[in-house]
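step=predict obj=MFS transporter n=424
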Amino acid sequence: MLTLNFNNIRVINMNMMQNRNYWFSSGYLITFYAAWSLWWSFYAIWLKSKIGLSGEQLGIVYAANSAAAMFFMIFYGIIQDKLQIGKAVITFQSIVMILIGPFLIYVYEPLLRNDFLLGVCIGAPVLSAGFISGCALIDSFIERISRLFGFEFGPARFWGSFGYAAATFVAGILFGIDPHINFWMASGVAVIYFTINLIFKPKQELSANNETQAVIQKPTIPTMSEILSLFGMKKFWLFVFFIIGTNSFYTIYDQQLFPNFYTSFFDKPEDGYQVYGYLNSFQVFLEATCMILAPFFINKVGAKKSLLVAAMVMICRISLSATLDNVYLISLVKLFHAIETPLFILAVFKYVVGNFDERLSSTLYLVGFNISSNVGVIVLSWLVGKLFDNTGYSTTFYVLASIVLFILIIAIFTLSDDKKTKQP
């Protein structure tokens, strides 16, 4: 039976409230995810309704973005593991973020309209360096800070979800007026993110008696041979197989297909954009709450079971989208994402730390999780786009749900049970 010790929770919360590293980490996350949401939450709708791309072209865009993201995730993961809590990579990323508004308006949009393939080739590395790979970079950076300086990653990640939700609420309104407003606002929020990064200096917290609240050992820097040794481990590749077979298909469903599927229920596109913005915002507020609760569930049942539960939520959401034809029920199903995302992301970190060398957490998260997901998206986005163009939403959703179910059954026997992922 799952029980929570609320006295322990209160102690953890008090410690976090007094931890400046927690608040700076929260500042990183709230500003990054707010800046990302302002343009990304309506990206698929913008490409299809404003730029006029087909399902196949949409698949090509997402595949190219994922291919570029793979390169930056390898670069970010290896370099950040070398830097540990150094901020050089974060600084580079933040500069790209600041440029996102003018880039989308004056470079990316005109190229997609007039020279589609050139626009895809130029846009993919810029979007990936700043945001698509950047989200994994900042998550792994803050997760490492949380382990070294004595606070749970989940409550800090709550602020990322909160920022995404608040920005999505605003983005839905502004998108109906002019998407360019969203793009400029994203650059504005990125300036705040850049400022936080300049100011933040990780510090070991002291109690009133000048005793350290936690013993913080400086981790040894992993060698390149230790990083490369991951690729010779069987359980690493079984983990990658699970990620590709679940999260890749779910990402295609959630980002490439669902936004346009949902807005198709509305007679006026502008009403669809606005309602989708409100719904997405509410969903991410729920997701933020689950970010606080999920660590207790994961620590109780273990990382493997949590990953399997998250995959079950994916299957339910995809299959119900294929079955239901009522916008109110579809809206309810959208909220399943608020359960799936915290469980999956936080369980991945717990699984990585519990089964592998925690010094390699950035490489494992960016390569093992995010690159694996992107490999799947690269290979599958165009195929799923073609399937959708030929069969429509319902058949495509049933196919995706069936594949994720098949991978889930295999993962029951192939993912590792590691006692390190559980805490008393």
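step=describe
The mean pLDDT is 84.
step=end
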